[in-house]
Design goal:
alpha/beta, eight-stranded mixed sheet, binds ligand NA7
Length: 544
């Protein structure tokens, strides 16, 4: 057919972050032709863009790493307990080189449109360089925290100094020496960057809308012996992270609730975890995400720590979170965040009681007072989970767009596919554990599931797979039901889409746990992809 696009692939993958890289590797290994489009100038996804000072992963490096290659996991040396962004980016580049992935990746190219052709049962994919290619399947490996969001604040465009967004940081070094810096937002990105910016800047003013819970990272250099111990135990560590852990992280699982212990025992447990550092603070007890009274004990402990660390009582009070249960907004992991407010060159401005009125050429105005700044850092987060997908014009059956279908919130079967959009897979999409888990564990699981599904289809001559509407409705109801049984929907979090004005408030990730979710996915596959409709293409006509 001369109207057909010149280039055709079995699979087009959107994004060359950790999901896209591994997807490409698996597809190659199975003999599928694949093309990856990446809007950035290099691999790494979120780690390519988030170059702000202090950016690091808050899952420990020995676990925030691929497990698919034994040689890779035995040979790569992580230098610290939590890898800093440059090292994670180096790792992504190493993986791309080691597995010779670059030759199938086109950089600096956005996928702008993908339209399903029902007659040809293939996708027509149009990219920012004006080309259109065909693909039997499209895999969205677009990331969950990849669409940086600039807040709508009056006068922001009139600010004369530089304005940076943590999620879209310049590649060249930014030097704040001698400058007065305004930092808006107090999520993970702010909490990681504030202590470093404060060391450089003449003055740092942090504008806080919602005080956030944060626990110490206790980051340190990784000793050779620690790495060796991990490497020796990798088979068990990886198995546990995939099959047992709720969040894809190998750590001891609590077997009792917070109210089962008396005050002294509880305090000792929280203190031990505080001392050890890290996200697993929330694993002191098994009901912190479920029971408000239990949760309050952990929240009170952290509020108490903030009061101990921060010398000025008014500042300490302002920094103590009280608007949401601990953990229901992503808990932050910091190095000296609260202590930073003891520095004479750091001040905290409450913008909850009095929101920012306006940004002028050289100041942020709050309650009639101008806080003069030379540079602004927006640590205001992302249009999470659906934001990057929504930026692509995706047309499914009958010309319906995915944005139309998801207007009242994302609907998927297992987070992997959406009814009406055949042969379109999403990696770590809404409705899967995704951002509630160690992302690399979830990415590997999704990629492997998709790779096996495509192999299954090829062996049987099947050409289309699509989520059935009925199975999708059931899954969406299940995802909501599980979330409703927890404290999570109580927070105005990005998990709920609450940070984006007008975005439907739906708890997007599946909170049933990584191990449970994997078993469900495996059972679905074992039952011949139950809930998905698979079809044979039209048989080719015999030649006359
Ligand atoms: P987050 O966690 O979404 O934090 C964004 C912060 O910016 C948060 O404190 C917001 O306050 C604040 N914010 C957002 N919009 C505004 C406006 N318009 N005015 C004032 N303050 C605002 O993003 P991060 O980049 O820190 O972290 C994202 C994830 O990356 C993190 O959870 C880890 O998983 C890694 P709010 O809480 O909405 O009141």
């Amino acid at each position: 057919n001369p109207a057909r696009a010149a280039e055709a692939y079995d699979v087009v993958v959107v994004g060359a972050g950790f999901a896209g890289l591994y997807m490409l590797h698996r597809l190659r290994g199975l003999g599928f032709s694949a093309r990856v489009y990446e809007q950035g100038g290099g691999v790494g996804g979120t780690w390519y863009w988030n170059r702000y000072p202090g950016a690091r992963c808050d899952v420990e490096s020995m676990q925030y790493s691929y497990s698919f290659s034994e040689e890779l996991q035995q040979e790569w040396d992580w230098s610290e307990r939590y890898a800093p962004q440059p090292e994670i980016l180096k790792y992504a580049n190493h993986v791309a080189d080691r597995f010779d992935l670059r030759r199938d990746i086109q950089f600096n190219t956005r996928v702008e449109r993908a339209a399903f052709d029902e007659c040809a049962t293939c996708w027509s994919v149009t990219t920012s360089d004006g080309k259109t290619v065909e693909a039997k399947f499209v895999v969205l490996a677009t990331g969950c925290l990849s669409n940086a969001r600039k807040p709508e604040i009056k006068g922001l465009e009139s600010f004369k100094g530089p304005v940076y967004h943590t999620g879209n940081w310049p590649h060249e070094e930014v030097d704040f020496t001698g400058l007065r810096v305004g930092l808006i937002g107090t999520g993970s990105s702010s909490i990681q960057s504030a202590p470093i910016i404060a060391e450089q800047a003449r003055h740092l003013t942090v504008f806080q809308r919602t005080a956030n819970f944060s626990v110490p990272a206790r980051n340190a250099a990784l000793m050779h012996e620690e790495r060796s111990a991990f490497r020796k135990n990798y088979p068990e560590i990886r198995r546990f992270a995939r099959e047992v852990a709720r969040n894809g992280i190998y750590t001891e699982q609590p077997d009792r609730g917070a109210l089962d212990d008396n005050d002294d025992v509880r305090r000792a447990k929280y203190s031990a975890r505080w001392g050890r550092g890290g996200l697993t603070f929330m694993y002191a007890y098994n009901n912190l995400g479920l029971d408000r009274a239990a949760n309050d004990t952990a929240a009170d402990f952290v509020r108490g720590k903030i009061a101990e660390i921060v010398k000025d009582p008014d500042t300490a009070k302002l920094l103590q979170p009280n608007s949401h249960p601990i953990g229901t907004k992503r808990i932050c992991v910091d190095t000296d965040y609260f202590a930073t407010f003891n520095r004479p060159n750091v001040s905290l401005v409450d913008i909850k009681t009095n929101p920012i009125q306006e940004i002028t050429a050289n100041a942020v105005r709050v309650a009639g007072k101008d806080h003069e700044v030379d540079a602004l850092v927006l640590a205001t987060g992302f249009d999470a989970m659906t934001g990057s997908v929504a930026r692509i014009d995706i047309l499914g059956r009958g010309g319906q767009t995915l944005n139309q279908k998801w207007a009242e919130g994302p609907k998927t079967l297992l987070g992997l596919m959406s009814a009406g959009f055949p042969n379109l897979f999403i990696i770590t999409g809404p409705g899967s554990p995704s951002v509630l888990s160690n992302m690399i564990v979830s990415i590997e699981q999704h990629v492997d599931w998709i790779a096996e599904c495509l192999t299954h289809m090829r062996m049987r001559g099947l050409t289309t797979i699509e989520a059935s509407g009925e199975a999708e409705e059931k899954w969406v109801a299940h995802v909501n039901e599980v979330a409703e049984g927890t404290l999570y929907p109580q927070a105005n979090s990005w998990y709920m889409g609450a940070n984006i004005p007008g975005k439907p408030r739906i708890f997007m990730p599946y909170i049933g746990g990584v191990g449970v979710y994997r078993r469900i996915c495996d059972e679905v596959a074992a039952k011949g992809y139950e809930g998905f409709v698979m079809e044979h293409g039209e048989q080719p006509q015999a030649a006359a």
